[in-house]
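Let us work through a complete example step by step.
Step 1: write down the sequence.
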Amino acid sequence: MREINLIVIHCSATRIDRDITAQDINAAHKVRGFSSWGYHYYIRKSGKVEPMRNLDETGAHARGYNARSIGICYEGGLNANGKPADTRTLSQQIALHALVSKLLKQFPGSRVVGHRDLSPDKNYDGIIEPSERVKECPSFNVLDEVWE
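Step 2: predict the structure and record it as tokens.
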């Protein structure tokens, strides 16, 4: 098993009024040159958690961090106008917290971050500020959530 010290939360960057399946993600990632979907888990609006890559397989979801991380993606992340927004359903929030809790027990001491929190700290103050973010993914502040 790989050494894991990071859990990275992503969104599929799809509008709240659209559905995107794990197979759709797989097809999009293959077009980008990945061997298969880059995430380890996908959480549908219904709260259903769909396993993707095996945990012992390096992901393709956060360049420079894949070797020791697990990638979790939730369906959504954009409002009806295509702007970043926390579109997680209550079912997704519950499923995400349950999954992260399980993973933290399996990989104690791991940090939980949003993809945007891995953007470069351009002013070197130790904080990834909104102006420094490469993207808004996952469209909510993962660092404000309580992960147990």
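Step 3: interpret the result. Residues 90-106 form the longest helix (17 residues).
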